[in-house]
Amino acid sequence: MFYSDKQRLAWAITGSGHYLRESLAILKTLDNVDVFLSKAAAEIIKQYGFQAQLDETKHKVYQDKTASSVPVELFYEGKYHTLVIAPATSNTIAKMAYGFSDSLVTNLYAQAGKTRVPSIVFACDTVPESGELSIFSEAPRDNIVKVYPRKIDLDNVAKLAVVEYTKIVESFQDLHQAVSTRLADVHSRSPE
Predict the structure, then answer these.
(1) Owning domain of residue 135
(2) Tell me: the pLDDT tens digits for 98-144?
(3) How far apart are CA 116 and CA 128, in angstroms?
(4) Is the separation of the CB atoms in 105 and 12 below 8 Å?
(5) 59 domain residue, yes or no
(6) Is residue 3 part of a domain?
(7) 2 lies in a domain?
């Protein structure tokens, strides 16, 4: 596949606080990114006090404000080489696993696949590397809560993992590595 220096990274954020702070920190280190916020993400970012962190990334931000998810047309124009969805809630994972595209983020995912643009999805509700069936997650006002992924959440992640052009990452370290690897691959395939 041919990549152009003019293509950008699309990064979608859903309404999860789990690794939201860390995802915004990665975004701050990247260039040529457009950020897409679900309705819940726009609320959560303010609720968690992360609006300044998002603003500091200096990336163009699109919000879910239209019924037809107008920004997805940018995939038809070949503007993006990769879609990252991080963090991705269990709701978003379930919708994507079953082919629903009824929001900005799920529409982005569907159109990325239909235009053969690879997606990297950081699924929040997964079993951590320790193998225990609980996750410690950041809640508003710097509270940490223990979350237990349900079997259906884990099943939906597994179902999504086999969808073409989709890479599921289950930890923040894996997300960072997958994004770095993808950007290095895109850069190596760009014409000089």
Answers:
(1) 8-189
(2) 999 999 999 999 999 999 999 999 998 776 444 555 566 666 666 67
(3) 30
(4) yes
(5) yes
(6) no
(7) no
Condensed to tens digits (0 to 9), the pLDDT of residues 68-86 reads: 677 888 898 999 999 999 9
Most confident of the ranges 16-20, 95-99, 149-153, 168-172: 95-99
Q: Determine whether 80 is exposed, middle or buried from the number of CB atoms within 10 Å of its CB (0-12, 13-18, 19+).
A: buried
As given in the structure block, the two tokens for residue 163 are 């969808």
* Tally of CB atoms within 10 A around 147: 15
The count of domains in the chain is: 1
- For residues 13-46, one letter each, b for 16 or more C-beta atoms within 10 angstroms of the residue's C-beta and e for the rest, the string is bbbbbbbbebbbebbeebeebbbbbbebbbebbe
How many CB atoms sit inside 10 A of residue 184's CB? 10
Query: β-pairing, 143-147 with 135-139?
Result: antiparallel
pLDDT digits (tens, 9 = 90+) for 34-70: 999 999 999 999 988 889 999 999 999 999 887 667 7
CATH number at residue 31: 3.40.50.1950
Six-digit token pair at 19?
A: 């690794």
Q: Is the dihedral of CA 71, 60, 32, 138 positive or negative?
A: negative
| pTM for this predicted structure | 0.88
Give, to the nearest 10 degrees, the angle between helix 151-161 and helix 90-97.
50
- Residue 28 belongs to some domain of the structure: yes
Where residue 187 falls among pLDDT bands split at 50, 70, 90?
confident
